[in-house]
Protein 1
Amino acid sequence: MEPIPKTEEQPAVTPTERLAYSVQESADLLGVNYFSVYRLIQRGKLKVCRALRGKLLVPREELLKLLGTQ
Amino acid sequence: MSNRFDDRRPTVLEEQAHAEASQHFAEHLEQFPVSRAAVERLERNIAKTTLAANMAASKPTPKENIFQVYGDGQWHKSVDLIDNICLCHRPITGGVEYAVVEHFPARGTNEIWNRGWNAVEVLKVFAQEQRQALQIWTEDMTAQVKEFLVEKYPGQDMSRVADSFMHRFTHAVSQQHSPSHEQNHNRGIRI
């Protein structure tokens, strides 16, 4: 019997690709100040989730959506 | 700045943790008072801004101040408010309509925050939303500082450091503020 060739599973995201960013990281990525990001959150333009201690995290998808690339 | 460690002096470890947190969140400490001052200016100047908007609405708008809002036609810029946000107007049957419009440089689009026939009301609603955004910022900062301290100093009680840092954060005064304003502001935490 021939050995079954191993198939390499592609992960959904590469190990270096982050799933979510803090507000300051999001501001840096978007090229805006921190207040602009909090304003976007307040308006619901950026959907956020909360980490264990309540820190806000912006999912990568939300940033892409905001930029109109997704 | 007064010692915010209340009943007893901070330990060496607490002082070190405070310094580290201040360094780590230096950008927040710098940007928050500037943003809060901008919101306070906005609140203080609602009447003045309304007058300026009414005057702008009574004259022809220069071409460069007329822009398109996606799905909502043309608007005329009246007054700059904060960052990339301005108060706009446009003539409608029987009067003038006002709107707060934000320009998103990343997307190159303009979007309406809120609108109405009464410029004062439009500005008040906008200012209120800015306050809410500052509140979200403060809550996030509290969580971030706590996380930072727990990770840096596991097993240590750093609650006084977190409190002291947040006091500094919410009471920091923008350099654009006058000393009398600083005095009033330090009477209580208000964000």
Note: The first strand of chain B starts at residue 66 and ends at 68.
Protein 2
Amino acid sequence: MEQEIVRRPDEDTPDEDAAEELAAEPSPADGDQNRDARLTRRVHVVLGLVIAALGAWLLYKSRTELEFRGPNNEPGPGYLPVLLTICLIALGLALSAVWLWGPKARRGEAPTLSLSPQGIGRALLVWLALLVCAFLIEPLGFLAAGEVLVVLVIVVIERIRSIPLIIALLLLPPAMYLLFDTLLEVQLPGGTLWY
Amino acid sequence: MFRIRQLLTVAIAVLGLIALAGCGSSGGGGKSGPVEVVTHNAVGGGSDVFTRQMIKVMYENKIIDTNWPVRNVPAGDSIGAMSYMFDHKGNAGLIAQVTPTWLATPMTVENAKVSLAGLTPITLVATEPQVVATNAKSQFNTFADFVAAAKKAPDTLVQAGGSSTANDALTRLVLQDSLGAKWKFLSFEDTGSRITALLRDDANIMLGSASDVAEQVKAGQLKVIAVIGNQRLDAFPDVSTTEEQGIDSSKVPVQFRAVMGAPDMPADAVQKYQDDLSKMVETDDWKNLIKDDGLVTQNLQDDKLETYLKEQTDIVGGLLQGLGLRKDQ
Amino acid sequence: MNAVEGLLHGLQSAITPTNLLWLLVGCLLGTLVGILPGLGPPATIAILLPLATGFAPATGLIMMAGIYYGAKYGGSTTSILLNIPGESSSVVTCIDGYEMAKQGRAGKALGIAAIGSFVAGTLGVIGLTFLAPAAADVAVNFGPPEYSALMVFALLLVIMLAGDSMLKGFIAMFIGLFLSTIGTDLFSGAQRFTGDQIELAGGIEFIALSVGIFAVGEVLINIEDKTEKQLFQVPNKIRDLLPSRQDIKKSTPAMLQGGIVGFLIGILPGAGSTVASFVSYIIAKKTSKTPEEFGKGSIEGVAAPEAANNSETGGAMVPLLTMGIPGSGTGAVLLGALVLYGLNPGPLLFHEHADVVWPIIASMYLGNIALLVMNLPMVPLFAKLLNTPYKVLYPAILLISVVGVYSVNFSIFDVGMLVVFGLLGYVMRKLDIPPAPLVLAFVLGPIAENAIRQSLLLSNNSPIIYLERPISATLIGLAVALLLVLAFGRGRKVRDQVVEIDA
């Protein structure tokens, strides 16, 4: 990576001409691109710092909770975690540095991330449905919790109207129950609320 | 529309195939049969195999009339299994095959909500004396030889074993203390790795059960240089015990195999199991199993069992305390 | 009895109606079980154990071997179609397999997986038949220094899977390594980062992590677009649903190489299928005429790991049958089965019970043929499964993931882990951090750490031990060479680019 950063300035000259040509005629699409590029850059810098912070916290835990060395001075339980967390801190900081000052970032050439709020919102909604289902498995049993997930998908997330689709989805948990519990003898939770 | 039909057809076809296979193989084998035996190993582990062997002996000798299903709960190294038992208090049809791991593991975890004391004791079926094995070409012919060498060169010889809370590790601690010798301990995940370590001469000795090494000894790859304790084993009739070699092994934690029931099990159910197990240890099949696996039948029940368990708890607890791993006090 | 004689005798015993029937049942069950994430051969064999112990030993073990093989065939199906790796060896197949599915080439991927599995599986059994004693020797001589050298080598290879951003690949890898330390330390018994959660004492369950990151993460990414149409285009013509002659020709070197690599690595207890599948993938990438396709749907990228993880089965049987030392989880179950049958596995198994061992080996050849015949026709059917509207498919994926993960340890905690890692997988994908290095590092981490600590214990903390032993010295040498290639290979690439621009 060092070599990349060192070599790039040589290439700057030919590319800059091309970039200037393009920049001569800005268009709405460019504006979006720029905004995405800036957002991507900011996200990466923050990400790097977050990872470094995480690494630091874990390093602290490794040092205080675990023995660094064992009885015969060989590596103890804390040895590897300490090494790993130090590396994580270094990598996190490196990520931030590259995206802050690295040549690719400055020119905004790196691939942008797609971070649309609607998309993320939908995904998180599905994830929440899954979370709710997971919490409900113990009290309600797998069958009921599965149906809850399916109903959430039908009503809240996808707003399905077509009857065959609804039926197919509602049949999924019982089908799985049949497959796993009855035929493969994998006992699925019955629900502590009922029993 | 068309796609849904396709999906349903595929689904039904697959289910049909599975049904065929399912009917063919697991013909009604008790999912929730009358008695379930819990073990803390995954399938194929030592405790699991022993449990299945026990059930097989009882079934083939018509002591029990159905093949009791085994439930493997490997999560948490016996804590998962114990939690399962605690979740089914008072259930007369739930027993478990218990080993010292069930004693030790809860002690190493803070606020473990389960412990062996909560289960209903039924019977101590057998104990598994540990044997000391070395490479067949090793210079040590008795354990006393090894100890002498260890005293001359402390911290050079190597014992291959399991995790540092496993029985063989704790045994080493006791022996080192009482003998005034020191040697290194190399932890391996499973028995196979320990055996190859011996074969490779990376380790000098290994402590394990007779069944772990019997085949290798027969093939002339390993040899057994002592049985820990005061009783010779039928599996290795020519091997002397540590007592005979002048080594004190009274405080060594014993690898035992007990059967215990769900908490608050009704007394008549306990009695029935005790009777069944007493019948089992009288059978020829059992005696052969004992001989092959290098076990010693005990059949301790009631008071004697309680005393025994308390003794072992104290021994193991003390050792774990010494290691700084005891978290439940 | 030498190998050829033994094999012929074994074939004779294996081709009886009973044995063949149960072989087929085993293969079928294995395939179906392999398709479902979480439930693996160990669990299936466990369920069937009470029934199987009623059979003659050879029959029961033939069926179990069938399950073992079948599961490897089945595991590739969900990896390719749904990006759900059923076990650690299927993770690498997801990389190119799923890309191919997204491009509408699922049928080809599935087909080449089946064919590659057949070719390599057969190679593996041939290795088992003729090379068992020599292979056993190698397995015994692989001690902690050798393992740790191999693991370091493998971890370096993982970086090569990182793709475009090495930095992010490293981050993923280190996070994976760190996650693998959570649990109980083997040497000291200390609890590492378990935060008093008893369920974590055994470490994070691999299936929860991999299914969460791959399957659930993938669902969450796909769900962002509120489109009505189905996710992937699936061609209608049968010809497009199976690999073409060209495809097969292109993948042949990968299949052969995978077969050999898989067997060699499969011999080593513990290291097994994960390492085998992605070493084979990397070798295929380096020796391919089209390396840039890897990661974007290269058919060799599916053929190689699939081949490796099937011939690995043959390799894993070597220590089991020659020494009684199981090489993998399934091996341990088979070991238990052998004990229950009263056949004590050990170095004398071949001699004392040749009448059981050789039929098992012979049946593995037959099993490979049977599985190819069973799987190839199903390929178009499975590929068409992707025709279902995503709205129905993704809840099914989520539910199967939940059940599959639950079925491993019967633990709700694992399902919770699944949900957590699902979110992590989603976040990683959004941030363009490659998931494969994390998952692979998670598997390799414990083996590497334990091996290194064992080595240092043996050598009194002196690293010289690595150079004293021939095998580990060779591996270290290879690792160093690889490191140099990685560091300076990129430099050369950049230099080439500069030269191009200047010209």
Note: Chain A touches chain B through twelve residues (CB under 8 Å).
Protein 3
Amino acid sequence: MELRLNGEQRSADVDPRMLLVEALRDAFGAHGPKIGCLTGDCGACTVRVDGAIVKSCLKLAVAAEGADVQTLEGLADDGGLSALQQAFWDSHAFQCGYCLSGMLFAAGDLLERVDSPTDAEIREAISGNLCRCTGYDPIVEAIRSVAS
Amino acid sequence: MIPTRFAYEAPGGAEEAVAILDAAAEPRVLAGGTWVVPELGSGASRPDVVVDLRRAGLGTIAAGEGTVMVGATATYADLIGSALVRERLPLLHEMAGGITGGWAIRGQGTIGGSLIAARPQSDVPAVLVALGAVAHVAGADGGRALPVPDLLTGPMQTGLARGELLTALELPVQIGTHGYVKLKRGASSWPIATAAAVAVDGVLTRLVLGGVAGTPVELEPEDATMAEIHDPWDDELAPAAYRVAVAGPLAARARRKAIGG
Amino acid sequence: MGRRLVGDPVVKHDGDEYLTGRATFAGDVVLPGMTHAVLVRSTVAHARILGIDASAARAMPGVVAVLTGDEAIPLVEPVPSSVDPTPIGGHLAEIRCLAVDRVRHVGEPVAAVVAETQGDALAAALAVRVDLEPLPLVLDADEAMAADAPLLYPEWGTNRIVGGEMGSSAEEVDAAFAPADHVLEGVLRSHRGNAAPMETRTHVASWDETTGRLTMWATTQNPHPLRSTLASALRLSEAQVHVIAPKIGGSFGLKMFGNREDFIVPVLARLVGRPVRWHEERAAALLPGAREQVQRWRAAFAADGRLLALDVHARSDHGAVSAGHGWGMGLVGAQTTGTGYALEVCRVAWDVVATNKAPWGGTKPYGKDGATLLAEHVMDRIAETTGVDPAEVRRRNFLQPDAFPHLHTTGLELDSGDYEGTLDLALGRAGYPELQAERERARAEGRRLGIGLGFELTPESADVPGALVSGFDTATVRMSPSGQAIVLTGVTSPGTGNDTAIVQLVAAELGIALADVEIVQGDSDRCPYGFGNISSRSIVTGGSAAVLAARDIAAKLRTVAGAMLHAEEGEEIVLGGGMAEIAGDGDRHVPIAVVAGAVFSLGYILALDIEPNLESTRTFRPPNIRHTPDHRGNLQVYTTYPFSMHVSLVEVDDETGVVTTLRHVIAHDCGTVVNPAFVDGQVRGGAVMGIGSALGEEFAYDDRGVPRSVGFKTYLLARASDVPPIELERQVTPSPSTLIGAKGAGEAGFGGAQAAVMNAVNDALRDLGARLDATPASAPNVLAAILDARR
């Protein structure tokens, strides 16, 4: 199948039984999105497809034929980190890093939709993403620091 | 990875979709995938054909004569972002805005997919009943329309025949006020019980409970005592006794919200 | 100047790798020719295996091999027990990596399929026919101890895995109860839970016929002990086994050595002659249990709220036996009972019972949560009975700062502490009197608020005699001619940041920049033998060992620098900011990099007084572990005793039972803090897990022993919108026994948070006459308690 991955036209052999998250990882070599549940609950697989955030474990790979996909590997601008990525680092908003990719996409989506989100809006925006390490406070702080 | 092999079709319209459904032995319709894809992955569902509605053009929301036509594959995000829904179907708008799972799920889950899944543990069936929604169904022998309660024949069961496809929901424009309450065990939880009340000029016209039984329970609006719930729903997150116990308080809260304005 | 690094909230040194997707987890490892393994698991809770028919599966597309338990017997020894309970009178069961003869819980692996793709393996696994003859099952620990209970291991004659009694004698208990103003008794039940790290396990094993070596990328906390046990079971020398633990996505104890899958995967790799990857599905990852106990307690106390005696019987529902050390949580919970309080009479009888559920897996905070739940429940019961304020009850019972070292009746010797200090800090931050006023105001408005306290004390950094779970650890530090250093540790990191903190420590000792220190963890070939990450020990032991090794190198650098700077008698060399300089004379300095280069290239001129290498391997062994029994026959096996005080404010909806957590305050003390951001991170994460457990995180079985909890829709974790911000205060009471005074923060937060929330809920329900004597305070449980009280 063919798709546009992080700005680059790519094609790879994809088993039609693959979920999008599996195709991205195993066929296209993008390991940023993670697998945590395969039931759309943990959010570790969140990526952007055609501009919208998507839990990629709920999408068949073949359903993304021709789509424009962005993964963690494509978030940084020109080799540097985005403001959001830097904020996550500075605020210690990730420990084991497994939820990090999904959180960044949920956060990025929020900041596109809402200019100055309240803490409640931030918490709701990341409520589709589970974290077991941080207790969520530093993630909220990182997002808040970029929004202001 | 999904253990079983299946043919994958992404028809360009309802007619094409119906033709595929009619010809297949064990087809499965795919809208947002939030329930269907995990079922494929676990092997619980082993279709020969997966019919993906992503390009079938069934996602539009349009005004009709005193109604709003909501396409079956309209997502919760579509409903939230629609001025038409916000203004003319505020109960539906409120419900969509309370769907959990984050904004990715809101962009992936569809109203039609949720209705056809017919789970008690969902906001959609009871709200559509409270709004008097009519289901538009396409089939090989032509189409039909039926009130949503007639479509919901049991928990996880619908009255769709072989080869039939839900294409849209027709909802009368809401008049009056409404009240909606939802009880969950936190953001990870599916709905345990919901209550939707609609009132006109301070008089309750509809009161529908979701989640307390296998299908939505419509109560007599002014029933001060709780009607008995037959076959209360029991699942991993709450026993039947709990749902019976909270049904009354939730109904009262929805009533107060609707009549309080 | 270098010392400033310790105590700084330095960011993760490799954060950019994570942020750009370059951090490699085991699931990211791809090898040429890699195959995929899927396990066939029992769907029945207790049964005899009559036969396994893999013929259909073997014929399916893409299948490379199918291995049953019987077929695996000649290929690998039974899984070695990671902590053997037989020395204390417990029972062992032989655990084969794939079940043989019987299955004892749903989910027990009975066969493995290897195929070209994951999809092929899954499909073939579904086609394996397992013929089972069901046996009577038991799903309750009390029922399992009844005389006529079905036995999981008939040769034992009992379902009791292990147990004992510790603390005061029966006579001492009777003597304390007799004259007491008040005596209360109760039964406290806690539910089964799983820590659910976001990463499930993935193992990738590769057998190289040419070199005769097994290489395994393993989601493991303990690469060296895993290497040792793998070598033993696979009948290889340790030199033939290479275990690499890449980045780990959280463990909380669940990735400790002793798991069956650790052995299945290498066996499959050797069998098929190709690399094999196994990825654990979430439903299987949720199986390892913890926390499920019945604690029967009696407390004797004075009218002024002082607890005089505590007598407890703690029964743990372990599930089937495993080769892991989940059973140890029953022992440690018993040892921890009553600690922190000036309790002279404390007796704990404990047993760990086998039932037809999935086995316990060591889970943060390793049984101490049960002790915390009990003690804090009793404290609130004392407050309720005597009318003394719950905070005052704790205050009157805490050990005072001058009471240390304090030998508890169970044998634990508490190192240092100021418990009242954390109480004052927590109450101050919470605004305790204002909270109480708010509670009354809300009551008048028909809203039901509750305030709950929870004091948590967690023994850390264990040493288990006879097991590869030791209280010491080792690190190697090397400096190259460029002046850059590398640290190789025996400890590992599940993501907590101890690696960055160790970099801070070493950079501080060597006087060089953080960026000039590289750290390697988790590679059994490269790193010195260590015990990995467990029991919050990584900074305490691994950090201390790295400091010792760095100090050796620093001493050499100072000697050589002294020669280069013509230092005179009595003039000291100071290392800092990349420079070696004469103390007090900034003009006489030389870059450390130049000094290092001189060791290697001018060794005969400038390095005559040292062995000309800049490498040291050192081990830190804490002094306060004692393996000789005390007067009660107890060993002292924990090094440090961090603690925290929690205050929870909740609202309870008395029509629906829904609990909302409004505020959560913690005053935490883990001794010296190397990196406050990382320590705060541990406390917050643990607290949210504890809040989540108080309200949900319930692993449930149906009456056939089939799990009802199979994923995150049926095992409910707390999300960001479910919990309040955690308000933190810090206190520092250094450990007198560790090199840098750190006590470890890895298990912080859970116990105190869970107890505080439970106490807050009970506070909210008190005037209804309702009380929860069982966790969780889920909406159905809370409403049931309210309705029961009404009848």
Note: Chain B has three domains: 7-52, 61-172, 177-259.
Protein 4
Amino acid sequence: MLTLDYSHTADHRLGGARSQAIIGVVASGNLEILLERVLPGAACEVQIATPVKGYDATWEAVVTEFVSRSSPGGLRISINDGGARPDTAYLRLMQGCALMERS
Amino acid sequence: MMQDVASRENGSWLQATARQRLAGLLDPGSFAEFIGPEQRVESPHLPIFDLPRAFDDGVVIGRGTLGGVAVLVAAQEGQFMGGTFGEVSGAKLVGLVRAARDHKQLPQTILLLLDSGGVRLQEANAGELAVAELMRAIVQARCGGVAVIALVGGKAGAFGGAGLTAGTCSRVVVSEQGRIGVSGPEVIETNKGVEEYDSRDKALVWSVCGGKNRRLIGMADAFTDDTMDGFRAAAQAQLAVSKPLDLRTLQHEQARLAHRERTLGGCNDAAAMWTVMGVPDPDAVAGLDTLDFITLAHSIKDANHDAR
Amino acid sequence: MTLDEVLGSLFPAGHHVAVSAEGWITGHATRKTGGPVSVIGVANGVALGTAGVIPLAAQVLEVAAQDDRVPILVLVDTQGQLMGRRDEMRGLPEYLGHLAKCLLLASHLGHRTIGLEYGKAAAGAFLATALATDILVALPGATPAVMDMPSIARVTKLAESRLRELAKTTAVFAPGLDHMVFVGAVAAVWDPAKPLDEQLEQALAAASPDDVRDVRGAERKGRPVAAEIAKRVGAEATGQFGLHAAA
């Protein structure tokens, strides 16, 4: 198993009232994402546990794009990856963020 | 409070995740999770096999309300490792049932959303023990008046230890897509040959372990279509008729199962069984829609009982 | 030990235990203390299907109906549940669940139940028989297995040699009596060189309807987290209602 860690500072803190959300399942081609509003200011951390090696650059790109698109400031995001494709990962991250933005 | 992508009332139970099923089943906003994913109580064993873990180890437990009635709930995630019983996921189930058994102030109804192929082979011994502990806890809880209602309609079905767990519950609700068995079709084919069981013959498989057969022989008490609304309504109805377990219950079950063995023991296929049981047109069963099938099931004497 | 040897050592004064042609064990015997014990089981490594459940459960229910706390001994040498289309079709999960419930109810009603594994034991039938007792003991040479290694290898897509390597450091998945001891399933391994009737008395004295297997598994380090998680669920469930959490 491989663990990847990315720290970002988003544009601003994410709005919404939810303190945490979970989305997806750990299955072939899928992943689960746990989002927790526990970091100060606009800090954002994304940690990925994955059995698939060699995709560090892809994950980094997905996370960077997601952070710039969604500004998930204040969120610690933890991922258990079951072997998802980058577009699936991206979609789930966006869905997770949308859940956190709900009041 | 955990929530997932929205589930509509007529959303498919089969396609849903465990969390989506709980959201669709329980009264909106009523679910409170125990040992939630943020606690990260994951399997200590999967890393040894280089396998990904789940934050909740594939079982979601907690409490909520169903039509205003307080209930405890447990939902297996069939998409994670086939919904299998591991050390952690098993212990969550065991802990929930023991809690209801030991604390009368807790809701005395447990909804078990089974979706499991049995024990997780990577943790086989722990999983097997968890099932044994769960079955013991269920019987003790039921003796004390706790109602344990199994809901079966996921892709993994309820096989192995999950099948036996269904066999210890107060009441069982099943959909057409739900399957309940001990050995899976592929395992039987591998061990006994394709003549004995062609696991790729879908119609055969469903006639053996599928929801309609289970309902007709009296292994399930209620049949529903594959919707959140359907499972919700069926669970509520079963809640109302659950009774404590006692010696008389098992004496009646003994009579019921001995009778079935005597009368159906010579049948070679499901159609033959259903004929013996009084189904007028066995070949039409597969094609019957939900309402017609439910009507049929209610007319079959041996399909309706409280000897479980 | 053969079944006859087991029975001879358990009941040196004689017994009324019989094995049917299909391998179902029924009957009764007298303990060293002079009290009666009901005996059921599965012999000769046969598979347990719907037909076998009927006579075994019938006897358990007869015992359960008596108000006399007679214990029940379950002798286990089974290859597992019967694998067949017709038994499954007729509701095998219900039958095996029924046998387990009967044993569990008998325990609840005051009859101590003890499983003695002296041969194979696997999955479904194991759950319905050996693991549905208050206490499970085994004779050395018993080979309990949830699933055989080749099948585990096939499903996990790992080489058997790799699995055997892994099994040296964890008791959690591989077949074998030692592992069943470490995870808490088997309370004790009996000594075949000593009289079994005395060991039966010790086991019955230790038997109780309280399920301590997870605690035992934690003490023996085979199942490090199950007991603590089960307890934690209870604490969280009661804490959420604002009740005083159980100790």
Note: Residues 92-108 of chain C form the longest helix (17 residues).
